[in-house]
Amino acid sequence: MSKGTPTAGFILGDLLNAVYWIDESLQVSLTEAGFERVSRTWSMIFLNIANGVTRPIKIAANVGVSRQAMHKTLDEMQSKGLVEIYPDPNDKRATAVRFSARATALQLAAIEALQHIEGELANRIGKKRLSALKDALGADWGELVHWHPETSRIS
């Protein structure tokens, strides 16, 4: 990242680069294993579902797309047999999404690839650094931070 960019020197830029590196490594690994390459949006949707986010509206917010775009994308994913959209048992007005049975081979390959990717990352940056990184990212960061520019204070 160049020094003139707004995120240079901040953790946000480093986190974004890390996500891109892992996602691209995963995409290449899955393609080499015989699976069709998917868009980054689809990859982020898969990641949300794997992390237990099942409501399309929440996935849309996490991925940064509109509800309409999310429903269209989920419909495409369902037509390819990768996900199932079903009535949310906790809210009869809403839907939820889960992996389809057909996606099991893809899930298993992704898990295996991610284990390999993390192992290779541990070799490159060291097991202790990777463990510390995972601990820090997995820690409870508390409530969201709100910065007030008019008073230059954080609440």
Structural features, described:
Strands 1-2 form a two-stranded antiparallel sheet. The chain has a two-stranded antiparallel sheet with strand order 3-4. It has one domain (about 10-135): Arc Repressor Mutant, subunit A, CATH 1.10.10. It has helices at about 10-30, 40-50, 55-65, 65-80, 105-125, 125-140, and strands at about 85, 95-100, 145-150, 155. By secondary structure, it is mainly alpha-helical.
Short description:
With 155 residues, the chain is mainly alpha-helical. It is 57% helix and 9% strand.
The residue ranges in which pLDDT falls below 50 over 5 or more consecutive positions are none
Query: Could you state the CATH homologous superfamily?
Result: Winged helix-like DNA-binding domain superfamily/Winged helix DNA-binding domain
Output the radius of gyration: 18 Å
Q: How does the major sheet shape up?
A: 2 strands, antiparallel
Number of domains: 1
Question: What are the secondary-structure elements, in order, as H or E?
Answer: HHHHEEHHEE
Name of the CATH class = Mainly Alpha
Overall mean confidence score, pLDDT: 92
Q: How much helicity do the residues have?
A: 55-70%
Indicate the CATH topology.
Arc Repressor Mutant, subunit A
The order of strands across the largest sheet is 1-2
In whole angstroms, the N-to-C terminal distance is: 30 Å
Question: Could you say which structural class the secondary elements and strand pairing correspond to?
Answer: mainly alpha
Query: Architecture, CATH level 2?
Result: Orthogonal Bundle
Number of helices: 6
Report the principal-axis shape.
globular
| Share of residues in strands | 5-15%
